[in-house]
Structure formats: C-alpha cells, structure tokens
Amino acid sequence: MNAQQLTEIITPEAYQRLLYAVETGKWPEGTTLSQEQRDACIQAVMLFQSKHNTEPEHMTIAAGGEVCLKPKSELRQQFKLKDEHEILRVKTSDSMPDSDE
Hints:
Elements: H1 3-9, H2 12-24, H3 35-52, E1 60-61, E2 67-68, H4 72-78
Antiparallel strand pairs: 1-2
C-alpha cells in the first residue's frame, strides 16, 4: 500500500486513535506500542494531516504536506486571555492565615 492509498482509507476516528497512540505510546485500550508500531503510527498521522489539516497548530503538518511552524506572536494571539482576571491566583500555605484564629 502506498502513501496515497493510506491517506484515502484513514477515517477521522482511526486518525484520532493513531494520534492518541503517538502521543501516549499506548493504544486507547492501554496496550503499549512497539517502537516499530509507533514509527508507523507517526507516519500515518503525518500523512493524514498532510491531506486534511486545514487549520494546522504549531508544529504540525498542514494540508499540502508543509510543516507548519506558527510564530510566537500568532500563538500568543491565539491563546490570549479575554480578561486579565481569568487567571486563578492561589496563595501559598505560608501566606494563608491559620485556621485556629
């Protein structure tokens, strides 16, 4: 089977399973991948992304097969907080009042 044939038969559901396997080193059921299996999964993920990834994230393969490297400024804009107060600030135990008081 060549790369073209492989990209035609990978379903979005199969892609998600392959992506999970690549990211974790295990199949969703928990079985560990061998290095050979992981290498094959990485290739299949990259092939699928090269055909279907129209909105690439930082460090992915974009549709057309190009490696997408988004600049930091674009990533900052993408993850920019709507409100500066969205960050939860937690006091450390040293600065918290004692419960005995």
